[in-house]
Amino acid sequence: MAPALDWTAIVVFATLFLFVAGLGFFAARWRKGDLTQLAEWGLGGRRFGTVVTWFLLGGDLYTAYTFIAVPTLMFGSGAIGFFAVPYTIFVYPILFAVFPRLWSVSRAKGYVTAADFVQGRFGNRPLALAIAITGIVATMPYIALQLVGMGVVIGALGIQGELPLIIAFVILAAYTYSSGLRAPAMIAVVKDVLIYITVIAALIVIPHELGGYARIFASVPRAKLLLGPASPHNLGQQSAYATQALGSALALFLYPHAITGLLSSTNRHVIKRNAVVLPAYSIALGLIALLGYMAIASGVKSMPAYAAGFKTFGPNFAVPALFLHSFPSWFVGVAFASIAIGALVPAAIMSIACANLFTRNIYREYIRKDCASAHESQVAKITSLVVKFGAVVFILALPKTYAINLQLLGGIWIIQTLPAVLIGLYTRALNPWALLIGWASGIAAGTGMAISLGFKGAIYPLHILGWTVPCYAALSALALNVIVSVAMSFAFNAIAPEAREDETTAADYA
Amino acid sequence: MAGNTKGPGKRFRLVRLLLIVPFIAVLWTPFYNSSEPSLAGVPFFYWYQMLWILLGAVLLYPVYRAELRDGE
């Protein structure tokens, strides 16, 4: 742990944090709705316009963990860590082209989750259940990782022990319970203002202190500055980089928290407009990634003042150390608060998304079928508490590597819902049982690849026609999933054409 | 896309091809995996991709306008 408590930074940090907590409780009164309805509590009444959705999705997708993990990867591994940038480049055309359809059909039929849609479209309960469980299981470790991000900055303030983290999460749980999605939507605005202030300050102050960008890049080991070249018969980092960017982009909006953010918008044009303006965050993310190189150039790694921090948090401490080294105490407080609050927003949305899935697609479907809407909303609120409590226990009781490994698996798993959800938005041609078998094969193959890699990464080398092609496991598992889904659909339709149940019509998607 | 009339439908599809451009520009890594030409000390690899964040957004805009015109 860092040796001394930095009181100035702590006071600034705590003040901002408490302000945001107050805002979270106040949010229940904002655009007041009947919070005993699930679409009110869990989707903010589907009333968010372009600006609120921009903040909400920005806060949702660019999380505290991203802000710690991306520069950490650059700090440790160099150019390959920059895949976060092409990833965000690919996300927005996909968002623009595909997801307004999901919004429209969800509005027309009252869907709250992706599994609701799959149930309505395919009329197949096991498939809908598989989609719901995948969403919940993939999101839980993501919530836990937000705690890791928050833990690093609290530790960097010199505060020891787990108590502050627990208090932060109790506050978070309380206002999420009372305000629902309105709370993170409101807090996201503050978070973004703080993040942008921090990024702009970092870009002005730090390169100046380090003698300019040329010197920063010159301090990065040459072998890490670019992707390793392809050798004969091995594409090396080249294919790893491209497939990881593409696979992550395809997975992003399948995550329940992303879908929750999308469905809360007031019309489909809000989504399209946001696809045009959300890349502003990608610029910030690209610049934040470069903080990893600034940390290399500053030499914080070898400074005795930060030795204890690096010992406790590993390379995750690179950015906090850089801030401590470069900024005055009061601004360290602002910067760290932006990261910690950056954890609160996605953690709240993720727990709400999990709660929506559990309530709609498991509780109401399998446990209490005659569930009234006020009861449904109550179950969701309690589920959101359980989910967050689970995340805290998970992080405190188990080694942090568990959460990181599971999050890695989560990305591989969630992308397996693509055929049912995204292809399902365009065609009902695939057989639901075939989709279920495809989903299972994708999950099995992807998990197998991750295990055989010892969870050290998700880049699995494929051997194609004498070439070694390192490929993001999520993407190769998805390819298998799609092939199986299509092939099995032909097989099923040949043997026993199903009685097609589809409660949606073409007009619902427009 | 469903139920579009032929006339505006055609134009709208053509404009939509712009959505593919960022994938072509960024998926093929050998295209930009080099230090030169550097820009103000930033290697090509980094500024090229940062530039595509902007270009990606710029390309979306005409598609958005076209769909609004079509009364989408």
Any overview of this molecule?
- The complex is a heterodimer of chains A (510) and B (72).
- Chain A is an all-alpha fold.
- The relative contact order of chain A is 0.18.
- Chain A has one domain: Hydantoin permease (Orthogonal Bundle).
- Chain A has helices spanning 7-26, 38-43, 50-61, 64-77, 84-109, 114-122, 125-156, 163-179, 182-210, 213-218, 222-225, 237-252, 256-263, 268-277, 279-298, 304-313, 318-326, 329-367, 373-397, 400-414, 418-426, 432-452, 473-495; strands at 459-464, 467-472.
- In chain A, strand 1 (459-464) and strand 2 (467-472) form a beta hairpin.
- Chain B contains three helices and no strands.
- Chain B has helices spanning 6-16, 21-27, 44-69.
- Chain B is elongated and about 45 Å long.
- In chain B, 24% of the residues are buried.
- Chains A and B meet through helix 5, helix 10, helix 12, helix 14 and helix 15 of A and helix 2 and helix 3 of B.
| Beta-strand proportion of chain A | under 5%
How many β-strand runs of chain A? 2
Approximately what portion of the residues of chain B adopt beta-strand conformation? under 5%
The biggest sheet of chain A amounts to: 2 strands, antiparallel
The pLDDT mean of chain B sits at: 81
Summarize the amount of helix of chain A as a percent range: over 70%
**Rg calculated over all Cα atoms of chain B:** 17 Å
Task: Name the helix and strand elements of chain A from N-terminus to C-terminus, one letter apiece.
Answer: HHHHHHHHHHHHHHHHHHHHHHEEH
Largest interface: A-B, 44 and 37 residues
Distance between the termini of chain A: 55 Å
The H/E string of chain B reads: HHH
> What is the overall number of helices of chain B?
3
Helix content of chain B: 55-70%
Strands side by side in the biggest sheet of chain A: 1-2
CATH topology name of chain A, in short, is Hydantoin permease
How many strands appear in the DSSP assignment of chain B?
0
Question: CATH first level of chain A: which class?
Answer: Mainly Alpha
Average pLDDT confidence of chain A is 88
Oligomer state equals heterodimer
For the biggest sheet of chain B, the summary is:
none
Describe the global form of chain A.
globular
